From TrEMBL:
Annotated signal peptide: none
Domain (Polysaccharide export protein N-terminal) ranges: 78-162
GO BP, sorted A to Z: monoatomic ion transport
PANTHER family reported in the protein's UniProt record: POLYSACCHARIDE EXPORT PROTEIN GFCE-RELATED
Keyword DNA-binding: no
Family: Belongs to the BexD/CtrA/VexA family.
Record-level GO cellular component terms: cell outer membrane; pore complex
Protein name from the UniProt record: Polysaccharide export outer membrane protein
Molecular function in Gene Ontology: polysaccharide transmembrane transporter activity; porin activity
Domain Outer-membrane lipoprotein Wza C-terminal: start-end pairs: 343-363
One Pfam family matching this protein: SLBB_2
Record keyword Transmembrane present: yes
Keywords attached to this entry: Cell outer membrane, Ion transport, Lipoprotein, Membrane, Palmitate, Polysaccharide transport, Porin, Signal, Sugar transport, Transmembrane, Transmembrane beta strand, Transport
Amino acid sequence: MKKSLFAFAGIAMIALQGCVWSPGQYLDPDDFEENTTAEDGNDASVNLVKITPEVVQKNQTTIFTINDQQKRELLSYKPTAYRIGPNDLLYITVWDHPELTAPSGPQQQIDANGRLVRADGTLFYPYIGTIKAEGMTVEELRAAIARRLASYIDSPQVDVGILRYGSQRVVLSGAFKTAGEIPVTGVPISIVQVLGQAGVATEVADLTNLSLRRDGREYILNIDSLNRPESWLYAVYLKHGDQIHLPYNDQKKIYVLGEIKLPQAMTFKATTLNLMDAIGSAGGLAQETANAEAVYVIRGVRNMENEKATVFKLNAKSPASFALARHFMLQPQDVVYIGPASITRWNRYINQLIPSATFVGTGANAKYNFSQ
């Protein structure tokens, strides 16, 4: 029995040497190269950066925004009169000549009397034969038909309307409720109207990375800004051939780990998510076990060989830290880690130590009893 007590005491003495080792995750600031600018030229693979007002300000300026040239390019497009194209279905009226207006009979549905623009851009019309309609506006086609009918009808009164638009379209893909093709019609349509028509799956969409492909170029738009007074997206009109992709937010995650009430991987669909919101959404710090002085934001890099990962540290023990956390913006794939308090590490160590000591004591007692 004495041997078991001595064994337990020996193990406890080792543990008391500053808690050299304890189970679970723990970040030791001594493992990092501390640097408030995170731009020095040393060889450390990770920088430890204290979150200060200066760091918060710099972190905010890294948020992506579309540049002025791209903005001007998008706003410079102004819709013009619709140009007829293949697969458009036209309704041509010649007043006082129902045999030309409705050759299938007035009792038929209006589509049955429509004139389809063929794949080569032409259509056939009585008396005048084949006419090239592709590329014309409605007014230009009306005038052309009236001019050619004048050889057969005295002062023909012609009207042209479009029953169905089939030649021009924009394509939507991604996190829309109704993805697919949307026709471009004679009524100008803005990107905001298309979003409303297709419906955005807001719970799974990444609202900050809408991709608009036009004429071989790509524009990344933040539709989360639509609720801001200065938003200019309402003035962006779409044209034939535009491709719109709204990505899902499954890759836009923040991982909140450590001494937090609800550890989780959370997605965010808006422009930004600040450190305070992330901690609050995870239930806040575990008051009984967390070390408020050890709030970390671990931010990796794409090329670990040439770039340094950064670990931001916040001392959340002071009231001023809440203001810093409120303005410190997180980025996708950031890891928010809350370290354990020293007593927490000690208690966990003891909880694992006692069963081991009990086992040692049991073995020592058994050996003593056998020896007797």
